[in-house]
Specification:
Number of domains: 2
Number of strands: 11
CATH architecture of the largest domain: Alpha-Beta Complex
Helix content: 40-55%
Strand order of the largest sheet: 6-7-8-9-11-10
Order of helices and strands: EHEHEHEHEHHHHHHHEEHEEHEEH
Radius of gyration: 22 Å
């Protein structure tokens, strides 16, 4: 079983695009640089423990770890009999790479290119070189080979991934990743067409819509709102919080509260309010004539607004890379607001 942790840019998702093509038994995780890396490592170790599968292998790409983090990772992996491979190209990882045989560093290539070669060498991946060109396009933009013929295509792909923010990756990690990998797949399919960078740029909107399309076509905003509302509804027990005698759904950095919040209330008549909080503690509240959320906003966040649409801010809000920790903080804050 492969447990693959990678970065959250085009290069990082490029690595996972390849690994998911190579391995059938794989779980993917993503992190930005800094503290989130070890938070995701802890998540991987927890999954390895629960899965209890033979020969677990931790693959880390496009992320450089400190020597201290490497020691922590190695100790945790050893406890569960897991092996490790780290494939990176950031020069800041040089010191750590010298101390750990599983830490492979090559500053001359993108992580996607390094991963591609590693998969070819160790798993006979892509004997027909089907993925070579898309790998080279990602490589060209990631290490800025501006004279490379694929540079402009890579540039469009870079914006494609950085602009794919419709799904919150903390709240819906798997769906967000699937979305971005689907965009890379669409980009691969267009790569050999005439004026490919322009063709990809022109196709971007329809490529995004196609991921969110369900029974019928609609505006992209409406398709996204329906998709997110369905995810919130399908997992509403996970998102349930309480305020006094009212029951609500708590989102995190979902955005578009006027559309998604209202849709969620219509789709879940057994709930009284919808709350979306962002990383700074600012929140939006929506209801569907079930309660006066302006009073709730004033009570918990010195805010206000309208009976069905209000907002405020939780002072002293503590953010996290783990949704369950965010939810626990908000619920505890609400429960103790008057203490």
């Amino acid at each position: 079983m492969i447990y693959h942790l990678s970065h959250i840019d085009l290069d990082g998702y490029g690595c996972q695009y390849l690994s998911t093509k190579c391995f059938d038994n794989i779980k993917c995780y993503n992190a930005n640089y800094g503290p989130e890396v070890m938070a995701r490592v802890d998540e991987i170790i927890s999954d390895i423990s629960q899965d209890a599968l033979p020969n677990p292998h931790i693959l880390i790409t496009d992320l450089n770890l400190t020597t201290k983090e490497c020691n922590q990772l190695e100790a945790k992996a050893k406890e569960y009999g897991a092996t490790i491979t780290l494939l990176d190209h950031h020069a800041t990882g040089e010191n750590a790479s010298k101390n750990f045989p599983w830490y492979y560093l090559d500053t001359s290539k993108s992580a996607t290119y390094i991963t591609y070669e590693w998969l070819q060498t160790n798993y006979d991946f892509d004997k027909a070189n089907e993925y070579e060109t898309i790998v080279k396009a990602i490589n060209a933009i990631d290490i800025w080979l501006s004279d490379d013929e694929l540079f402009e295509y890579g540039k469009v792909m870079l914006g494609m991934i950085s602009g794919a923010k419709e799904i919150n990756r903390i709240l819906f990690a798997n769906q967000d990743r699937d979305y971005k990998l689907s965009l890379i797949q669409k980009a691969k399919e267009i790569l050999n067409t005439p004026d490919a960078p322009i063709a990809l740029d022109d196709a971007m909107h329809s490529n995004k819509k196609s991921f969110f399309m369900q029974s019928k076509n609609d505006t992209k905003d409406n398709l996204v709102a329906t998709y997110i509302t369905n995810l919130l509804t399908q997992n509403k027990e996970r998102f349930t919080i309480y305020y006094q005698n009212y029951k609500g759904i708590l989102g995190y950095n979902v955005g578009s509260a006027s559309i998604i919040g209202n849709n969620t209330m219509v789709a879940n008549p057994d709930y009284d309010f919808y709350m979306d909080i962002n990383s700074r503690g600012n929140f939006s509240l929506r209801s569907n004539n079930k309660m006066d959320v302006s009073q709730m906003a004033a009570h918990i966040g010195s805010g206000g607004g309208h009976p069905n649409a209000s907002g405020g801010k939780i002072e002293g809000y503590k953010d996290s890379f783990v949704y369950e920790e965010i939810k626990a903080f908000v619920q505890d804050y609400i429960d103790n607001i008057d203490n």
